[in-house]
Amino acid sequence: MESLWEKNRSIPEFPRLPGDIRTDVLVIGGGLAGLLTAYCLTQKGISVVLVEKERICSGVTSGTTAKITAQHGLIYHKLLNDYGKEYAQMYHRANARGVERLKDLCRKADCRLEEKDNFVYSTDPMKLEAELTALQKIGVDAKFTPDIPFPVEVAGAVGFANQGQFDPPVLAAYLAKDLTIYEHTKVRAMIGTTAETEHGKIAAKKVVVATHFPFINKHGSYFLKLYQHRSYLTAWQNTRRIGELYVDDSQTGYSFSSFGDYFLLGGGGHRTGKQGGSYPELISFMGRYDANARECFRWATQDTMSLDGIPYIGNYSKHTPDLYVAAGFNKWGMTGSMVSAEILSAMIAGETPEDAAVFSPSRSIWKPQLLVNGLESTKNLLTPTPKRCPHLGCALKYNKEERSWDCPCHGSRFSETGKLLDNPANDDLKK
Ligand code: FES
User: Fold this and answer.
1) Where would I find the beta strands (DSSP E) of 52-100?
2) Which of 144, 226, 286, 385 has the fewest beta carbons under 10 Å from its own?
3) CATH 2.102.10.10 residue ranges in the chain?
4) For residue 412, which atom of ligand 1 is closest to its CA?
C-alpha cells in the first residue's frame, strides 16, 4: 500500500549498469543511508558509484515516520549503565550533530522541514526517572511532562527540544541529482571489493553496504546481530493537528505526529514473522480518539534492530578493511543515516571520524537479545514446512494482514507469488 511519502513523489530515474566499470567507492543501497553516504563522499571529492536493486528511496526510506531526533527511546540510561559516560556522551553528540546536519540539508533541499519537540512516553515511572538522571549526568538538556494528549496510559514523557520531521523523497531527489547512480542493478555477490551484478562487474577500492539488512553472510555475523521489527502506519485528515512528536518507549506502543495536513498514527508492531495488532489495532485506536477522522493512507515499515539499541556503523568486520556497513538503525533510520554518512565518509577519506567508537560493528555481541535471536532461528530452522527462506533456510510464516510470506529469523519477506519484498534474502522463492 502507498505511503504518505509516495504521494506526488518526484524522483528522477537512473539507468541500469551499462557493463563492467571501476570506481573509487561503491555504495550498495539507494535508501537514505546510501544516498547520504554517497553525497558526503562526493562533497569530499571522492568518486562514488551507487547501485540500487530497484528504485532509489523505494524501500524503508519511503515507509518511515521521517522523524529527525537524537532521542531514541529511553536509551541514555541503558547506554550509561552498559557502556559508561564517555560512550553515552559520544552517542548523543554524534546524533545531535546528525540532527543539525540533516536539518541543514532539509532547508537546502526545501523538503518541508517542520521543527518540533520530541517526547518518549512510558508507563514506567522508574525508567523515566532513570532516563532524566542519565541525561543530566551526561549533560543533555531534557524536559519532563506528566501527561500526553492521547488516550493511553502513561507515567510521563521525556522530551528533547527542536527535533524535526521532513519529506524524505524530496531530500532523496536533492541528494541524487549530482550522483552517479545505477538503478535496477542488484549485487548478486561480492568477490573482495568487486561487486557482481546481472549487468556487469563493478571493481571498487572500497565498498559501503547500506542495504537495510547487510546481505554478505561471510563476514560480520549480522544474521546473529540483527532481527527485523514490522510496524504499521496510518495518515488521517479531519482531525486535530499536534505540534510535537510522541513515541512509546515500548516496541508495541504507538507513535503520534502531524505532518502537513495529516495526523500520523503508528503502532501494532511485532517481530517480523510473528503476529501483532497491525492495522486493526490502529483503526480501533482512532475510533476511540476521534471518530470523525478520515483515513487517507496506510502502510507498513520494517526496521532492523541491533542487539544493544546502537547501530552498526564502520568496518563490516575486523577482517575487511575496505568493506564498510551502515545498519541496525532500530527505529531511528533518518538520523542514523546521517550519522553513518558522516562517519563512513570520514573513514573512507582517511580522516578520524568523531564519536565513531560507540557504533563499532565489532563491539561485543554478548547481550540478552543474542539469545532471543538464536532461539528464534533454531526453532524456525527445525520447523518442518516446505516453504523455506532462501537466506538461511528458516520456515516462512504467512502474514494474512499483508498477504506475504515472512521469515521470523532475520525478517526477509516474499509476496504470495514468491517475489522477494525485503532482504536479507537476495532471491525470490523457488517455484
Ligand atoms: Fe534469514 Fe530467512 S531471513 S533465514
Assistant:
1) 67-68
2) 385
3) 368-422
4) 3
CA 373 to each of CA 134, 150, 221, 385: distance values in angstroms, whole numbers, following the listed order: 28, 34, 12, 20
Nearest-atom number in ligand 1 for the CA of 425 is 3
Which ligand 1 atom sits nearest the alpha carbon of residue 424? 3
Query: What confidence tens digit (pLDDT) does each residue in 326-353 have?
Result: 999 999 999 999 999 999 999 999 999 9
Q: State in Å: Cα 395 to ligand 1 middle.
A: 8
User: Where does the chain hold its CATH 3.50.50.60 domain(s)?
Assistant: 4-64+169-221+309-359
> Which of 217, 272, 385, 394 maximizes ligand 1 atoms within 8 Å of its Cβ, making it the mutation to test the pocket?
394
Superfamily of domain 4-64+169-221+309-359: FAD/NAD(P)-binding domain (3.50.50.60)
pTM for the model stands at: 0.96
Atom of ligand 1 at shortest range from CA of 408: 2
Residue whose C-alpha cell is 536479507: 424
Cell numbers that stand for 350 in this block: 582517511
Between the CA of 365 and the centroid of ligand 1 the distance, in Å, is 19
**Can you give the pLDDT at residue 9?**
82
Q: How far is CA 27 from the centre of its chain?
A: 17
Give the Cβ contact number of residue 152 at 10 Å: 15
Q: What CATH class is the domain 368-422?
A: mainly beta
Residue 329: its pLDDT value, please?
97
Strands across the sheet containing 397-399: 397-399, 404-406, 413-415, 420-422
Nearest to 272 by CA among 310, 230, 226, 307: 230
DSSP string over 122-154:
ES-HHHHHHHHHHHHHTT---EEES--SSSS--
Per residue in 188-198, pLDDT tens?
999 999 999 99
Q: Strand 67-68 and strand 114-122: pairing?
A: unpaired
Atom of ligand 1 nearest to the CA of 213: 3
Separation of CA 390 and ligand 1 centre (Å): 7
Pocket of ligand 1 (CB under 6 A): 223, 389, 391-394, 407, 409-412, 424-425
What letter does residue 5 receive in the DSSP assignment? Answer: G
Q: How far apart are CA 5 and CA 140, in angstroms?
A: 32
CA of 382 relative to ligand 1 center, distance in Å? 13
The answer to whether the CB of 431 falls within 8 A of the CB of 418 is: yes
For residue 364, the CA-to-ligand 1 centroid distance in Å is 23
Distances (CA, A) of 156 to 5, 111, 162, 268: 31, 32, 19, 21
Q: Rg of the Cα trace of the chain?
A: 21
